[in-house]
């Protein structure tokens, strides 16, 4: 699918390695490709390299790669064209910084403004539209630090929308968010997918991955597997990525069904957030 600006390849990495200044190699020879019009779940244990991948794609870290491209552009060029946005984990933001919600969203417009960063009518319209899309118009003049976790996430999504980003990286957007807000965020992400954007979403909420991600990437110091969710989101890959971290419960027969003739089994895999539930046999 081509996105509304005509892009086809969304995020591509071939042989990507990232080594921190202290010598830790957090990613080694990682390769994957995501087309535009995609929501991809990035799953792996703590320390697997999810944040490192985001930072690499945002140009925050030096990388070695045979190829790394966003919408066919180098990272520098994609950033210069304002095509990439990052929705950070809550812990990465200084919430005591006195800034209004509308100003946070306006930051998404900076790349579209001239040297003096003086917002014009188009910038103000983009901010108002973005706030309306995430249902945060009523909070525009609040200090960002005075919002709930879910509201803060929506403001950062609005910043990405105001920026008109085509590649959006979301670092654990559901942490500390109630189910209603999670649903609202998922609905918005699906609309953004329909507009041809590509979203890479790190999450420990494994149960939600088949619900809203059409693709998945398994990461553990490298990319173990990637592809269409229905093909790669398998118990075997979950086991490879999570090893002993995942708890597994197999339920069946009388444990599960009052009707003893009902032989269907259920497998539940969980890393302690929302579990992934599989019906039927043969889940190894
Ligand atoms: N600034 C740094 N300097 C050195 N090593 C680092 C740095 N940041 C991360 N690492 C190491 O790189 C590896 C990958 O870390 P990363 O933060 O990317 O994992 P993650 O998958 O995002 O984990 P989590 O699920 O806990 O957020 C870990 O071994 C981590 O200790």
Automatic annotation (TrEMBL):
InterPro entries: AAA+_ATPase (IPR003593), ABC_transporter-like_ATP-bd (IPR003439), ABC_transporter-like_CS (IPR017871), Metal_Ion_Import_ABC (IPR050153), P-loop_NTPase (IPR027417)
Domain ABC transporter: 11-245
UniProt keyword annotation of Nucleotide-binding present: yes
Gene3D superfamilies on file: P-loop containing nucleotide triphosphate hydrolases (3.40.50.300)
Pfam families: ABC_tran
Keywords tagged on the record: ATP-binding, Ion transport, Nucleotide-binding, Transport, Zinc, Zinc transport
Alphabetized SMART domains for the sequence: AAA (SM00382)
Family note: Belongs to the ABC transporter superfamily.
Protein's UniProt name: Manganese transporter
Native organism taxonomy: Bacteria, Pseudomonadati, Pseudomonadota, Alphaproteobacteria, Rhodobacterales
